[in-house]
Amino acid sequence: MNKNNRVLFRLDDITPAMNWERFNRVREVFQKYHICPLIGVVPDNRDDNLNRQESRQDFWEIICSLQQQGWSIAQHGTYHCYETKDSGILGINPFSEFAGLPYEKQYQKLQTGKKILEGHHINSDIFMAPGHTYDKNTLKALEECGFQTVTDGLYYRPYHDGDILFIPCRLRGYKKSSGIDTICLHTNSMSDADIQELEEFIKANHDVILPFIPEQLKQHAVKRTILVELYEKIALCRRKIKNWIANSKRLAWYMEYTNHNSPLKKWASRIYSLPMLLFYRANKE
């Protein structure tokens, strides 16, 4: 990875009843390499899909301990229950805990979550939206509630929208990225192979991994302009096209068959092989 690029990590869906065996193994990897990620804590989880075992009674003590060790804490929604089918500003997913709700309800919900965290001695001004979905009312409510950072955005560097700092999370996994990006991990569903892949990536790219400290990232931030908004729309469009290709056997076969390390040879192969794509469609589908 280019040393001009920087990588951060975030762990989503941190709850008392999460898969602790998976979480602890991932935690050991980060601690082994002295990396401090961001963890998204759900203040009052009501999403049964996140429950994988009995709740740990020492959950909040563990979270406070991690914060003392330098790990950053984000408020990951409030209940992690999707109430609307609104895709919000980024348009990544067609569901949301916040986007599409009236401002007053969003404000009250955010305040409720914030007070729960504060009641457990966790003060955080970082917000992690469930489903990556939020709208303008969410941002207004976040500012009123004292949040300063959102871990989301499809631009290649942090940007300011009003008084809020957005730190990119482009959902590209371990693929080569330009600029600054956040790798999003869901420990509940990580396999042994996933954890091994994580450690191998960290070993190979340790020199470009940063702790999730918003104050240190502000120096890289720009103002959100029409160009930033356009860049994000193009990035989302490319993501949707890739997902569409991945869900089509015909297109997935074609892309794999014509892939090449050389961009010139790759595109030459794709143009030359177009008749084969049509033949595959006629005979396979």
What is the element layout, followed by pairings?
Elements: E1 6-14, H1 20-32, E2 38-41, H2 59-68, E3 72-75, H3 103-119, E4 126-127, H4 136-144, E5 149-150, E6 159-161, E7 164-166, E8 180-185, H5 192-205, H6 214-217, E9 222-223, H7 226-246, H8 249-257, H9 263-272, H10 274-284
Parallel strand pairs: 1-2, 1-8, 2-3, 4-5, 5-7, 6-9
Antiparallel strand pairs: 6-7
Helix pairs in contact: 3-4
Key attributes of the depicted protein:
single chain, about 280 residues, alpha/beta, TIM Barrel, 5-stranded mixed beta sheet, 4-stranded parallel beta sheet, 10 helices, 9 strands, globular
Q: Would you give an account of this structure?
A:
This protein is an alpha/beta fold. The protein folds into 2 domains: 6-243, Glycoside hydrolase/deacetylase (TIM Barrel), CATH 3.20.20.370; 248-284, no CATH class. It is built from 10 helices and 9 strands. It has helices spanning 20-32, 59-68, 103-119, 136-144, 192-205, 214-217, 226-246, 249-257, 263-272, 274-284, and strands at 6-14, 38-41, 72-75, 126-127, 149-150, 159-161, 164-166, 180-185, 222-223. The strands form 2 sheets. The protein has a 5-stranded mixed β-sheet with strand order 4-5-7-6-9, covered by helices on one side. Helix 1 links the parallel strand 1 and strand 2. The longest helix has 21 residues, at 226-246. The chain is globular and about 65 Å long. The model has no long low-confidence stretch (mean pLDDT 91).
